[in-house]
Specification:
Elements (H helix, E strand, L loop, with lengths): L6 H49 L2 E5 L12 E5 L6 H7 L3 H7 L2 E5 L9 H6 L2 E3 L12 H10 L3 E4 L16 H7 L7 E9 L6 E8 L9 H9 L6
Parallel strand pairs: 1-7, 2-5, 2-6, 3-4, 3-5
Antiparallel strand pairs: 6-7
Helix pairs in contact: 1-2, 5-6
């Protein structure tokens, strides 16, 4: 036997559905606002990179054709790390169109920046700590945060060596493999960025960027870095 449902009985469920929808929309809107804010911060980084490349730093840039990069797929940018200027020079080497493909991007950064006055600027640029600031915040840092941001549609910038290395390569961290294994190889693109600084002229940089999605199938971080260093200039 079927019973008609009293409208009064539906009221609490309708009210609950409205509340869920309200808070869901707030969350989605806040996520979009955060993405837009990060885009704005990265435009500032891009402009600063263009400025120093035009006035102070001499750069020689080799860029790929990004026509084959789908905007709807996550993009992982893997780079070596030779100086504090690396993120500015990398961003400044891009055209406006290429910047729009990459941004918004989350960048893994050393933990100590978030214990300094630079923290607001780091957050505005889309940075997050490589190690947790406090134990309860573990999922908001390092590999766990990287995977979550990729699945939310952000690009991801990482330095697998973990710190600046001017003279030679350093053993990379395994986290880069965990990050790449968290997504299917057909679901993402990879940009390898090699930065070389002239040992005789510290204000001269050579930047090579190449798309290579095949590294998503690599199982050792050293293989990723070997491939990255193979695209660079020798100076």
């Amino acid at each position: 036997m079927f019973h008609l449902i009293n409208n009064d009985n539906l009221y609490p469920y309708a009210l609950l559905a409205l509340r869920v929808n309200f808070f869901y929309n707030i969350i989605i809107q806040n996520m979009q606002k955060q993405k837009n804010l990060i885009k704005f911060g990265q435009i500032l980084v891009w402009l600063y990179g263009k400025l120093i490349a035009a006035t102070v730093i001499k750069t020689d840039v080799s860029l790929p054709n990004m026509d084959g990069i789908a905007k709807e797929k996550p993009l992982i940018i893997i780079s070596n790390h030779v100086s504090h200027l690396d993120p500015y020079l990398l961003m400044g080497s891009l055209s406006w169109r290429e910047l729009r493909i990459i941004s918004p991007m989350k960048v893994m950064m050393a933990k100590w920046y978030f214990h300094s006055p630079l923290m607001p600027f780091a957050w505005l640029m889309g940075c997050f700590p490589a190690r947790p600031l406090l134990k309860p915040f573990k999922k908001w840092s390092g590999t766990a945060a990287s995977i979550r941001y990729l699945k939310k549609g952000y690009s991801l910038g990482i330095y697998p060596e973990g710190k600046r290395v001017f003279e030679d390569k350093q053993e990379p961290h395994y986290g880069v493999i965990k990050i790449m294994q968290s997504i299917e190889s057909y679901e993402a693109h990879v940009l390898l960025c090699h930065i070389n600084r002239n040992k005789e002229n510290g204000n001269e940089y050579f930047i090579s960027i190449e798309q290579d999605d095949s590294v998503l199938k690599f199982t050792e971080p050293s293989l990723v870095m070997d491939r990255l260093f193979s695209i660079g200039h020798n100076v």
